[in-house]
Structures are given as C-alpha cells and as structure tokens.
Amino acid sequence: MVTLVLVLGDQLSPDIAALRQADQSEDLVVMAEVAAEATYVRHHPKKIALVFAAMRKFARSLEADGWNVAYTRLDDPLNSGSIPGELLRRAEEHGTRKVIGTRPGEWRLIEALEDMPLEVVLNEDDRFVASHAEFERWADGRKQLRMEYFYREMRRKTGLLMDGCEPAGGKWNYDHDNRKPASSDLFAPAPLWFEPDDTVREVLDLVLRQFPDNFGALSSFGYATDRAQAEAVLDHFIDNALPRFGDFQDAMLMENRFLYHALISAYLNIGLLDPLTVCRRVETAWKEVRAPINAAEGFIRQIIGWREFVRGIYFREGPGYTQRNALDHNRDLPPMFWGAETKMACMESVVRQTRDEAYAHHIQRLMVTGNFALLAGLDPMQVHEWYLSVYVDAFEWVEAPNTLGMSQFADGGVFASKPYVSSGNYINRMSDYCGSCSYSVKDKTGHQACPFNLLYWHFLVRHRNRFERNPRMAQMYRTWDRMTEHRRATVLENAQEFLEEMNNGACV
Ligand code: FAD
Ligand code: DLZ
Ligand code: SF4
Predict the structure, then answer these.
(1) Pairing, β 68-72 against β 162-163
(2) Whether the Cβ atoms of residue 226 and residue 205 lie closer than 8 Å to each other
(3) pLDDT, tens digit, for every residue of 481-499?
(4) What spacing in Å lies between the alpha carbon of 499 and ligand 1's midpoint?
(5) Of 86, 274, 349, 437, which sits with the fewest C-beta atoms within 10 Å of its C-beta?
(6) Closest C-alpha among 260, 308, 259, 301 to residue 283
(7) Which of 437, 440, 442, 494 to mutate to test the pocket of ligand 3 (most atoms within 8 A of CB)?
(8) pTM, to two decimals
(9) Hey, how many other C-beta atoms are within 10 angstroms of the C-beta on 212?
C-alpha cells in the first residue's frame, strides 16, 4: 500500500525526517497550498509568497530527485482547503490509509493531524541541535529556565567555539561588547535580494489576487526562495556583515533597516538552511580571522542558544501557552500597529519597515513594538497574532515564546527573569528615531513627554506587587519612591490621559 509522505511549507529540507522514512520507489509526497494555512492569521503577503514559491521549487527539486509528488496549488478547483482535507483526498485517490509526516511546529496542526481518521505517524523534527527529550532532561527539576545555561550545554554538545572543555577565548558570552549604538551615517552592506523568477512571479500574482487586503507590501519582493539562493544570502552575510554583527546587534536606524543582521531566520525556519551548518560556517570565519570572537559568539548564541531554547519552551509548555496572560493585560491593539498614523517616530518607523519588508530585527521587535505593547497593557493574544502575521519568519514554535514569554511576560516568568521594559532613554541611546519625533524624549511629564517615559512608570506601578521584590527591579522602585508625590501623580495622570486618548482612537 502506498504511503503518503506529508511535507509542510516550513519543512522544505531534503533530509526532513518524513522523507528519510519513506520509500522513494513506492511512496507519494503530498504538498499543498491551502486556505487554512494561508489564513489562520492574516499573514504578510511577502510571507505567503515566500512559502508558496519555496514550496513549488522544493516540489520540483524532489521530482528531479526521483520522488513522486502530488502538489496542490491554492487555486486548484479540487483543493479541499486544509492539510487534513488534502491528505484525505489523496488517500482516497490512491487507496491508502497510511501517512508519515514530520511533527509540525504548531500545536494547532499537530492536533489536527493526530485527530485524522487515517494512520498518521509523525516523526520528530530533528533539524535542531537539541531533541525534545534532551531539552526536557535539561529543564526538569530546575527552578528557573535560563537560556545562558542551556546555551553552554549546546556549546559543549556541538563543540562550537570550544577549546577542549573551555569556551574559546575564555568567555562563554561576549554580550557586553555588543551594545554599541550606530550613527546615522554608518555604512552597512546592502542585503542580497533576488529578482523574481518565473515561479516567484506566478506566486506574486496569485498572492496579489487572493490576499489583496492583508497588511503588508508585496512590491519589491526579493527573498530567497530556494536553497542555492538562501546559501548565497548566508555567504553574503558572512563576507560583508558578520564582522560587525556583534558590535551593532542592538542598534536601530531609520534609513538603515537591516544593519549587520543576517536576514536568514525565514530560511532557517522553512528548511532552506540548516542551523548547525550555518554555525559551523560562522565558526570557520572566526577561525580564519575573518570575524572577531564577539561577532561569531554573539551570532552562534542566537542560533544554538535562543532559537533552540524558545523551541524547547514552546513544546514543554504545551498547547495552552498562547492563551497565557499573567499580567491580565486586555487593551485592544491600537490601529497604529496596522499602519495608522502615530506621532511616535519609533513606532511609525518600525511598523512602516514591517509593512514594507515583513522584517524587523530583534531589538526593534523587542524594545519598540514589544516594549510599547507591554507598557500600554495590550492584550497578549492580539500582540501574539500580530507578530505571527507580520513577519516573514513567524512560525508559532519560535514566535510565541519570543512574543508571549520574552516580550510580553504573559507566561509569568517561565522564560524571562524580568520584563523587558524601558523608558524612551534606551530607544534614544540605541537609535536615531527620537530626533524626528513629535514627542520629546527628554520630557518626563507633560503632553510633549515621550509616551515610553510615562508608560514605563505606569507599568511598574500597575504591577508593583509582582515585581518590587524582584532583585533586578528593586532599584527602579526605589527611584520611583524617591520622586515627589506631585511628580508621581503627574506622571500617572499623564500616562492615563495618553492611554485614554489612544483608546478613544486619537492619533497619539
Ligand atoms: P539576526 O539578528 O541576524 O540573528 C541570527 C539568527 O539568530 C536569526 O536568523 C534567528 O534564526 C536566530 N535568532 C536570533 N534571536 C532569536 C530569538 N530570540 N529566537 C529565535 N531565534 C533567534 N524569530 C523568528 O525566527 N521567528 C519569529 O516569529 C520571531 N518572532 C519574534 C517576536 C518577538 C517579539 C521578538 C522579540 C523576537 C522574535 N524573533 C523571531 C527573534 C528575532 O527577532 C529574529 O529571529 C531575528 O530578528 C531574525 O532576523 P535575522 O535573521 O536578521 O537575525
Ligand atoms: C505559513 C504557511 C502558509 C502561509 N501556507 C502554507 C500552506 O499552504 N501549506 C503548508 O503546508 N504550509 C503552509 N505554511 C506553513 C504552515 O503554516 C506551518 O507548517 C505550520 O504553521 C507549522 O509550523
Ligand atoms: Fe519613540 Fe519616545 Fe523617541 Fe518618540 S521620543 S521616537 S516616542 S522613544
């Protein structure tokens, strides 16, 4: 009996577990562009285009390698509209009940596949450094899960940047070298983009027709859509940007959207690049003195540290994780997140960049949009859906822990020891946004005061019971307590006025 081999849109790796289990001479690979996956959130059009174009090219490369592939296009009249629906349709067509797949990166789809009236076997997705069992072994019995200790295990396991049992250069982490602000005239290499080929053009037409109202620009689509292109992006990054990646990792510039970032997260997440190979390439660049240790270590930590850690948390915490709301935040996402006018230059710039590129780098996501959402008490579920829809690299296993855990503290501290909040000061130090803002970052009270300055204290006061005994936050409460009563009352009143104006739909 033929077995159906399911390959999802973020499983585009030739050695994905399901393909390794299959028999090329007999089995049928099933791939499908389906409405359910394209609409579970209103994805950015560039994200849909990337996934569909990469799926089409991957299907062709499988056929060239000798696989039989049943590929369903989105506009196929027989398309049932969902992954389970397509499996049922193919099962009936080919008289089979057997399906092998690779465990999806989202509980929603795992549950849907496990509930199917077919014999579905889901293999562990082993395109990661740590297996689920390894993460569980590391996490079990620990009072707190902190990325740094997990990361050291991953360094030991992979031998990356290791000098025997010791970290290369004598330190595990070079982060304190990595906090340099950037000046507006900083020269940064342009990213490597690709002219749309026939496949991409066809997909762009489809996306334009089918998703005309989704937030995000489709014009100047330049993402890599196959393995060779993704590898060229990696080469380009290592040759041109890696040496300064560490130094300017946290900097933000209005006219320089990508700085020294790699722009490879989407390719890693859909399977066009392999994380360990990427890290070995970066390690080699360091060994050949083409990149300093702070850059190589900082970069490798993002991949074998943060990326693996967030995945471990997502699967450990289970399907209920996305419903968490530990701080009981419930304000609606204001329209500025969807491009409506705002007087905050930082928010305007990051949202505009997000709309144009489907990309913002980590600090823009964490310390501008995320920081604002947390300080303003926005509903974490709406924040999560926003991040899941607007970024080209957004898949729930990686997006949800970053958004709900790291950025919104909605999991109550499973992920982070303290909330990532800051006043306007931090944004001013790390960016060039404040110079052109209608608000004044120097003002701490009054109608011109930077909203981050007001909301920062409003947040701390709202959550005093939870955070004042946190040793990493006690100093902030002491600073607050030292202010005059009049000053404190004015800050809170101004913050409240700002939130009310925002709630009432005013341009703030
Ligand atoms: P670089 O800055 O060049 O970093 C290199 C690589 O490290 C990235 O490609 C990525 O694979 C990895 N990496 C870095 N930080 C993280 C992290 N915190 N978690 C996981 N991997 C990391 N990343 C996603 O891949 N998908 C998401 O949906 C996503 N959502 C996020 C939401 C929020 C609120 C925050 C704060 C961060 C989120 N991140 C997400 C992490 C990070 O912002 C992106 O991985 C990064 O910006 C991608 O751009 P880059 O490839 O240029 O990364
Ligand atoms: C993101 C995405 C989109 C937009 N479309 C499809 C699709 O049509 N078919 C498919 O197999 N996968 C798609 N994906 C990726 C899935 O949503 C992803 O596999 C799950 O969210 C699990 O990570
Ligand atoms: Fe953002 Fe405040 Fe700076 Fe304006 S002044 S750009 S709101 S941090």
Answers:
(1) unpaired
(2) no
(3) 999 999 999 999 999 999 9
(4) 30
(5) 274
(6) 301
(7) 437
(8) 0.98
(9) 9
